[in-house]
Fold:
Amino acid sequence: MIKLANSLEKISVWSGQLIAWLTLFMVFVTFSIVILRYGFETGSIAMQESVVYMHALVFLIGIPYTLKYDGHVRVDIFYSKMTARGKAWVNLFGTILLLFPVTLFIAWISWDYVIASWELGEESGEAGGLPGVYLLKSSILLMTLLLIIQGSSQLLVNIAFLTSKTEEH
Amino acid sequence: MAAMMPLFLFAAVCMVLLFGYPVALSLGGTALAFAGIGLLTDTFDPAFLQALPNRIYGIMTNQTLIAVPLFVFMGVMLERSKVAEELLGTMADLFGSLKGGLGVSVILVGMLLAASTGIVGATVVTMGLLSLPIMLKRGYHPSIATGTICAAGTLGQIIPPSIILILLGEVLSAAYQQAQLDMGIFAPETLSVGDLFVGALIPGLLLVLFYILYLVFIGLMRDDLIPKVISAETTQSEHILYRSIKALMPPLLLIIAVLGSILSGAATPTEAAAVGAMGALFLALGKQELSWSVLKDVVQSTTQVTSMIFFIFIGAAIFSLVFRGFGGDELIAEFLTGISENDADSFLAQLFPEGAFGPVLIVMLVMFLLGFILDFIEITFVVVPIIAPVLLTMGVDPVWLGIMIAINLQTSFLTPPFGFALFYLRGVAPKTVKTMDIYRGVIPFIIIQLLMLAALAYWPQLATWLPEKVF
Structure:
């Protein structure tokens, strides 16, 4: 079970580590936009939109990745004082009752929205903008898929921990 | 019963949050459960949730919010390249020969760092790890040391360019548009993040000034709390001065460049953030702290912090759509307007737009209490969109409201026994520092904060004057 959890987890880790480099490119591209505007008085809509695409990808694909490293803020007044077992119970129930419903709901409600964009072959509203708005919108669904995978991994890890006979601290 | 659903929803969310599962999912999950109940009992209009994909897409493509990952990048880069450590060390040397000088350095470094971080916990922990051992070693009373660090660490929220102010500005800007449309103004004025930055300058710097005055005062009066300086190394003073300038100039120039370009209107916050991030990169490069592993660490931390913030935004979007679907916004509006009608003709009430005093006071009190369980980001995304349009419709100035919210929450984070900053500092403080020391230490700073809030209520110009001058 742990083995399966680990291989599921790798998907979030790899995708997150890959996408993280986009933050560096965001800095470079936005900086170039500033230089071009104030140095050469030109600008490129496509360049600006590429920053939007990178930004959206970073935080969407980063969501399951951040979950893996426990980077999502918790209200930890009580949580921080719980035993490892108590925390595992919170995470188990949280995954089943909160993570899965929310993620599946986002996927379900966004489905038609994304499909409609594909059918239109939706392009940027601005002249000279990027043509792939439907791809950008699809990243919402990609996020939900990755989040379900990462959630499943955590489900397995917590079940394995709670059913193991090892002593708690 | 059905009319009370929004209140039940809010209470349930608070309870679920206390279990400690990630906030974004707790918000969204609880709200969806209520939407389900509402659908079964026919008290909820599902059309509201249809707006969710468009909301998420709006968050993805919001130009101003792109400043967030860029500022986070800049902050993490500055932290990893040890700029903060060096700054504190040299400042302490520079002011070390003055009584209370170390405390003043901590406040000043907190202010400078503040500009680059936005998460309460992170700054307090960093400041605590860096400065608490030095302060204790030099004989500062634990309560003075911890109080100073908590105050300096939370200062970050209101000194521009804080990430919190960007998020708050974005949410308030939407609320301001809505409020003006509700009032039938179809060519509405806009509120920019820059307005909020400029508005926060005077109140923020005043707070810094009062913190420093307090420390100097204690230094003069009480030898038992702040010790005399044992040996001033006068022979090396020239060397120290040179070193301080060398350590201080780069980050200072960076902050001035970032703030200056926003304030002068030359660059949008997003562009300024990119310039700042680029500057931080060069700074690290110049200090030879920029290795492959540092860079990898920086991009990964940036991604995690960014995702954390935006995931809460998405969770809060689900919550607020469900809250609206149950008529929660009307409930709040009615409640606040009700208070407004009962508003007494007291002396304070006359300082506010007609009838706005009571509602503002209630909102501030509620936010103060919520600050005990929710961090700034959550309150900005969950509470501000509900209450701000109502208050703005009453004629409250949006910049002023934003600054009041920011200082109010900062005070909340400092207030025992639940304040966030106290928890975080407790976590990194040695056992010899008693929890009561921390509580006692922050009280003078809380009083300064409350006086600042009162001053802002009495002279709203403290926040509104500069934005009018600049823009």
Notes: Chain A touches chain B through 59 residues (CB under 8 Å).
